[in-house]
UniProtKB/TrEMBL annotation:
Belongs to the canopy family. Residues 29-171 form the DUF3456 domain. This is Canopy FGF signaling regulator 2. GO terms for cellular component: endoplasmic reticulum. Coiled coil: none annotated. Residues 1-22 form the signal peptide. Keywords: Signal. InterPro entries: CNPY, DUF3456. The lineage of its organism: Eukaryota, Metazoa, Chordata, Craniata, Vertebrata. Pfam families: DUF3456 (PF11938). It comes from the Eukaryota.
Length: 182
């Protein structure tokens, strides 16, 4: 009778390990999602607010008019598409941090954008972390590019929570969590 109990124990241990791995993946994708939105937000904020772009149809209507409008370039679909092409390369500027055993891992910038000093206490910097974060970012961009662009073009508040929690469920508990690291 001990063999079936032993087999059950092995199955329980394996299920626990699979659950831990799934949580790590959730942490990775949540961190990549939050870093992606942070990088895009920073890029949008640093565009000259006076810069505009013409959007609309360049076709001439039967009455001889055109429906063209000028919109701010920073949050235009054109600018967002340009940013999406290379935003995941910035994942090399992130490191992994864990507050203790059993805690969720998160990702923080390891280099300042404007030369400011950053606190790198409890931050692990490795090429493996960079590769995994970049891969997760590229997967998110590939799968959800239209959603993130739509949020930036049409909505300017709480994009991180709206995209990473509501739209994608990568950070399913992030709405209830304080966001200090990004």
């Amino acid at each position: 009778m001990s063999a079936p109990n032993g087999a059950v124990s092995v199955v329980v241990v394996l299920l626990c390990l699979v659950g831990i791995q799934a949580r790590k993946d959730n942490d990775l994708y949540c961190g990549a999602c939050r870093a992606l939105v942070d990088e895009l937000s920073w890029a949008v904020e640093n565009v000259d607010p006076k810069k505009t772009i013409q959007v609309g149809s360049f076709r001439i209507n039967p009455d001889g008019s055109q429906t063209i409008a000028e919109v701010p370039y920073a949050r235009s679909e054109t600018h967002m598409l340009e940013l999406m092409d290379h935003v995941c390369e910035n994942m090399a500027d992130y490191g992994q941090t864990e507050q203790g055993p059993g805690s969720r891992k998160s990702f923080v910038r390891i280099s300042g954008r404007t030369g400011e000093k950053l606190d790198l206490t409890n931050v692990t910097i490795s090429s493996e972390t960079t590769k995994m974060l970049k891969f997760a970012c590229e997967s998110i961009v590939e799968e959800h590019e239209d959603d993130v662009i739509a949020l930036f073009v049409h909505d300017a508040e709480n994009i991180t929570d709206k995209f990473c929690s509501s739209k994608t469920d990568f950070c399913d508990d992030a709405i209830h969590t304080k966001h200090d690291e990004l």
